[in-house]
Design goal:
Strand content: 5-15%
Largest sheet: 7 strands, parallel
Strand order of the largest sheet: 3-2-4-1-5-6-7
CATH superfamily of the largest domain: P-loop containing nucleotide triphosphate hydrolases
CATH class of the largest domain: Alpha Beta
Structural class: alpha/beta
CATH topology of the largest domain: Rossmann fold
Shape: globular
CATH architecture of the largest domain: 3-Layer(aba) Sandwich
Number of domains: 3
Number of helices: 15
Distance between the termini: 99 Å
Radius of gyration: 27 Å
């Protein structure tokens, strides 16, 4: 019988070639172990004191953590860093969205690193509690500064309350100072109560404004004006220079209507352009004059003592609130009283008193 030729189909299934490993199994295991292993408090502390940015970032993440089990370790790191802190100037910068804060901070930060300063930029942004992100301290808007080896930018910590966000920022200041940063810039959004929180953690408070917005004196809170140690009119370039100078004159007149500051400092007004860098050096000169005056008359050191006391009390308030609202016995009772108050079955004050009495009995 004649052998029939076997016809091979063009469509055949053959064993494919096994793809090569992207990384070896041993390397993958090593990476997995690294992810699992968290640095000890001693490793974080030694890294921070040696100026290691990775250790600094990890420590800030640790103090920002809402995990109760991380609290003891975070406190250990903070306490070890305290003796190495307090050696910087802390500058608060506020201004409404659109005023050019990021551009200004980048220009100002680059000017300072050019003088040999080490600059850390932190943010207090309570709005991050909604988006779970930050609209401040945005590295993408500070492209030049983020490349600078003498600068460090940290976006806002997210939290459920402004108090919580601000407290974490206050602890981040301590860590940055211990890491060798001698100039700390705290940025805030310029709305809400965030200015008050920032004012309570900085030495110098700068209000950034622009001219031609139709609100040189209107739409700005009296409280923010009273807190400001200097008002800087940004975007004073091109056709806007004349308007900026007029705005400077108006703000200068307004500042003289406020009572004298305890610091003995008379707030100043100036113009600048974060684009052309005109006036950036004058802002730093103003801050240096303020520091010289307040250190000589002792106000600088007294204010820092008061701020430490303030943050102790704020932390107590914050922890009490967290403990109260997360108390297992109160959760059900709280919901019941909320409904009772809504239905006018009990007054808000009586309900609050009942809840507090229950809390303190536990």
């Amino acid at each position: 019988m004649e052998n029939k030729k076997i016809k091979h189909s063009a469509l055949q299934v053959k064993d494919g070639v096994s793809p090569p490993e992207i990384i070896s199994s041993s390397a993958a295991e090593h990476i997995k172990n690294l992810k699992k292993k968290q640095p000890s408090s001693a490793e974080l502390i030694s890294g921070i004191l040696a100026g290691n940015i990775t250790a600094l970032s990890r420590a800030i993440t640790l103090v920002e953590s809402t995990n109760v089990s991380h609290l003891a370790k975070a406190n250990e790191v903070i306490n070890a860093c305290l003796p190495h802190a307090n050696n910087s100037v802390r500058i608060g910068i506020t201004g409404v969205p659109g005023v050019g804060k990021s551009t200004f901070i980048e220009a100002f930060g680059k000017y300072l690193t050019g003088l040999g300063k080490k600059v850390a930029v932190l943010a207090v942004d309570p709005s991050s509690t909604i988006s779970h992100g930050s609209i401040l301290g945005d590295k993408t808007r500070m492209e030049e500064l983020v490349k600078d080896t003498n600068a460090y930018i940290r976006p806002s910590a997210s939290g459920e309350t402004l108090g919580g966000v601000a407290r974490k920022t206050r602890e981040a200041i301590t860590l940055c100072e211990a890491c060798g940063f001698d100039t700390i810039i705290i940025e805030t959004v310029g709305v809400g109560q965030s200015e008050t929180a920032v004012h309570s953690m900085v030495d110098f408070f700068l209000l950034l404004k622009i001219s031609g917005a139709g609100d040189e004196l209107q739409g700005i809170k009296r409280g923010i004006m009273e807190m400001a140690d200097a008002i800087v009119i940004n975007k004073a370039d091109g056709d806007n220079i004349k308007k900026a100078n007029l705005a400077k004159t108006e703000f200068n007149r307004a500042l003289h209507l406020f009572p004298a500051k305890k610091s003995g400092w008379t707030p100043t007004t100036s113009t600048c352009s974060a684009i052309t860098h005109d006036g950036i050096d004058a802002v730093w000169e103003t801050i240096l004059k303020f520091l010289e005056l307040t250190k000589n008359n002792g106000y600088f050191f007294e204010k820092r003592k008061e701020q430490n006391q303030y943050w102790m009390l704020e932390t107590i308030n914050e922890q009490l609130k967290l403990n109260f609202y997360n108390h297992p016995t109160l959760l059900k009772l709280l919901e019941e009283n909320k409904k009772a108050v809504q239905n006018n079955e009990i007054s808000p004050f009586a309900a609050a008193q009942l809840l507090l009495e229950t809390y303190f009995k536990k």
